[in-house]
Amino acid sequence: MCKAFGSNLTGPSLQWYINLPSRSIASFAVLSDKLVEQFASSRDLEKTSNSLYEILQHRAEPLRGYIARFNQEKVDIPECSIPTAISAFKRGLLPDGDLYKELTKYQCKTMEDVMSRAYAHIKWEEDVASRAKAQQNPDPKTIRPDRTERDEKPSQRSARDSGNRNRGRYQNRPIEKVEGMAVSTWPDISHLSVSRPELVNVLRQMGQ
Questions:
Q1: What is the 3-state secondary structure (H, E, C) of 138-174?
Q2: Domains of the chain, with CATH numbers?
Q3: What beta strand segments (E) does the chain contain?
Q4: What are the pLDDT digits (tens) for 103-122?
Q5: Which of 90, 83, 96 is nearest to 66 (CA)?
Q6: pTM for the full model?
Q7: Which residues form the Retrotransposon gag domain (predicted)?
């Protein structure tokens, strides 16, 4: 039986079996005990619910990252205790965080309730971070022009700009007194292609 046992071994266990001293195994029971003794230390220890207390949120770690690490550890625990998981989750949170304060004030009975509150805080946390980033780097496309200028037609905007230029040209002209009345002088018509007599004649015809 001991010889047949060796045919079922592979890797390090087979090498160990080959290196056994000749006539050192008196029975199959002795062989089994030596095999267990040799490889017992290489066996992974089974995790328990108390292993969750080792998962702690880092100071600069987002809440989403902590929850991901906690859940990854939780799924590796067979028959995980729900009360222990709830306690370990709260214990691992930053004590000055809003979620820790909420879970301390309002006791949760199920992990579903805990996760519901946690993901609500994640949504708030990520929204605040998104708004802060947007304020630091504003999108030029989101900067809207003045509503009055935006609603104006091109012809209206051109007339408004022309009026502003003419207003600036005439508003500072000196005031002359004629027969006791203050009247403004004639506008500067040097830029026009007609003479002053021709302009006066046209104005008279318009007044008839």
A1: CCHHHCCCCHHHHHCCHHHHHHHHHHHHHHHHHCCCC
A2: 2-42 (no CATH), 49-136 (1.10.1200)
A3: 175-178, 181-184
A4: 999 999 999 999 999 999 99
A5: 90
A6: 0.48
A7: 5-94
